[in-house]
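# nightly structure sweep
# worker-07 picked up a monomer target from the shared queue
# config: single-sequence mode, recycle default, output format = structure tokens
# input follows
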Amino acid sequence: MRKYLQIIDRHRATKGMRFANILVDRIAFNLIFFALGLAGGILDGIFGMYYFTKFFDQLAELGRVADIIITSVIFFFYIFLMEYFTKGRSLGKFVTGTKVLMTDGTEPTVKDYFNRNIIRLVPFDALSFFGENGWHDSWSDTRVINIRNYEVERQSKNEIDAIGVKEIA
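# output follows
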């Protein structure tokens, strides 16, 4: 069992921040899809091949369930890769000044990010935030924290711990 630091708990992101995170990430995700569709349509028009147009027409003919599954899997990869390569942050987390950490204060590993984000595919995970923590936080032992407040408290604690320690010039 992983150690649980109180400093992590004290600086958890608010539900409003978490909502802003997902809202910004979903908007960015949809804009990326829109840009890809637009670029594909422009390329089809320029080269007269209509490959992308046919592909998008086929996607449009899929049922609602298939659409939800495909979009969820692509969103999983978007968030997973974003959090992994930016060390716990997504576009929404950059906007709100939040970050993902393990409950013991360490940086998540690639396996931790994968576990955290695969849990997002569980139906009703988004509704789990009406409780204390969301499932993808609780089940993966991660927390989204307010970076600024967390760093200020860590710095204060380090300065207090350094009192009486001889400095070497």
